[in-house]
Amino acid sequence: MKHLLSIAHLTKAEAISILNTAQELAKASDGPMKKLPTLRGKTIVNLFAEDSTRTRISFEAAAKRLSADVINFSAKSSSLSKGESLKDTAQTLQAMGADAVIIRHGASGAPARLAENRWMEGSVINAGDGTHEHPSQALLDAFTIRKHLVRGGEDLAGLHIAIVGDVLHSRVARSNVLLLTKLGAKVTLVAPPTLLPVGVKDWPVSISYDFDEILPTVDAVMMLRVQLERMSEQFFPSAREYSHYFGLNSDRLRVMKPNAIVMHPGPMNRGLEITADSADSARSVIVEQVKNGVSVRMAILYLLLAGSSEEIRS
Amino acid sequence: MDLLLKNVQLNSSLVDIAISDGVIKSIGVNLQEDATRTLDCKQAIALPGLVDLHTHLREPGKEDSETVLSGSQSATRGGFVAVSAMANTSPVADTAGVVEQVFRLGQSAGLVDVFPIGAVTKGLKGVALAEIGAMADSSARVRIFSDDGHCVFDPLVMRRALEYVKKFDGVIAQHAQEPALTVGSQMNEGFVSSQLGLKGWPAVAEEAIIARDILLAEHVQARLHICHVTTAGGVEIIRWAKSRGIAVTAEVTPHHLLLTDEMVRSFDPIYKVNPPLRSEVDVMALREALAEGVIDIVATDHAPHAAESKDCEWQEASFGMIGLETALPIINLTMVQSGLLTWEAVADRFSYAPAAIGRYTNHGRPIAVGEPANITVIDPTQIWRVDRDLVSSRSRNTPFHGMELPGVIVATIFKGGISYEAVS
Q1: Domain that holds residue A43
Q2: Are A131 and B197 an interchain contact pair (Cβ–Cβ within 8 Å)?
Q3: Are residues A130 and A164 both part of a single domain?
Q4: Distance from CA of B267 to the nearest CA of A (A)
């Protein structure tokens, strides 16, 4: 495994290896010495062509805990905003000796272009591309689910997970569908028909338009951010109607299984897809997702850059 | 004699063809004619010179990606003797001045006949009719009008255009794409787009316009041509229209007969094209339709682009692929070798029928004594590997780079002279 571009490219064994590595690294992080020398001397570039505070900081923290040198490169201050092409930027980073580039980009497939076009030789890690994928988010979500709901197993067999909201525009949903089903979970997508892609009928998931019907059967519910501009694009009539049918609130929390958890990749629209009391409830693992994100991203960097990646090659 | 073609297959028999003054003078077995030039065709097949109703030659305005001259060189290398040049140049070919310029550039290149297509609307904006009559009366004698690249989306403007060109037996070539259904669309809407997170381009956006325009053409009794049909549903609508006797013709591109949206998984914009690559089901329906004649012709939609407009992220990239030099081999691969078309039928789809639609009277003529000597000679058995660095087009955006294709153009005869000859 040289790059992490899409969950589709990972085998089940590779995915589990990342989760297990993250678990080990999380233990180390909880100890007295937070920082490991593993990636000393490696240069990692955070190439963020789209705003994202939490993912960038999470990757930066992960890289620094592994003692890598981190260069942050955000669109507003960079040549990308001056009209320099992605290719030229990649070649510049290559010339500067980047061992890995973590890329967040508004265009679906931009990381694949970086990796597969010989624009640069280092590893490419997809930190979210357009409406395509967000692999590290899915891995941290799976990690969180496993930690809370799985006892004595490595995968997610037997669990039922609902992903609720704007699947059509969600890279988080795409990566999670691939990963959670790969790990043996049953996934149900809950959304208004307008926010599901036409091709979804061939995805390995169930579809429901009725949140209330599904809710009592799930072990985890993953709420997706709904962008308000979708309303002006006629995907649904009003924010109120959306919340009424697809928002998570305290009434809905009550019908969930006793141990079921509430997740959200952030940033949340409190009051739209999730009420404040749901987000802050005892079922919510939303803050913990952020914490686990660092461990999972450490695992990704470790496996890609520390030379042991051969072990998990498919 | 100026030229003697030895050992060519014509309607399955091996003959020689003698040409003088741009005209076929005699056809027979083992002709004993003195000729200035003799070309041994080694049993390759002679087809009436190919006619392509859909190319983008980019001149004036985008000479970095193609010129009329380089486009003509690419065309003749692909076996073409006539090409129609779409109107989306800069300035747009919406006046007599621009179409005459393109026409003259074609004549001075002298490798193929370049027939300019006029814009339907001023600036391709879809609002006001362009100077259609003036373009028809110009020295370019424009008969095909198209806003290709843009759909004539306003039904009233489309109706008027269809009616107006009846005055001189013209035809409107529609780029069928409902704009409201394709805002920001990147690829065929289906399973692959759902996985890749690229904005979908639904088949219905194409089919709705095809259906609408067919009904309009029937209502005003005018000629309609549908550019680059890509969907099985579009084929069904055209089949229905033809069964009702509506004057609609349609084209399909070689790339839509061979490639599917699965190619997009690479995110390589070399596969980004308008209309988009569709599904396997669509590809098979298009092949069937071309075999039946529901789709009348093959047209390349040759669309050259400078390297930087493809060497980038998918959504930043330009739509389009070059296709003149690979067109006939791809038809050989997809239609002839699969048993769907005979070479006689290829002559129809690639020469007779397109020339008839464009009213190009000197083209699409049979290979017979007294006819204009426009001939394409192809050896269908030879395999070659496509190399984007070796194309005659000024651009290299071929999706077939590295592919092995069956069929080598041995020679192209244009107005009695050899305009292209393969190095043997």
Answers
A1: 7-134+292-312
A2: yes
A3: no
A4: 6
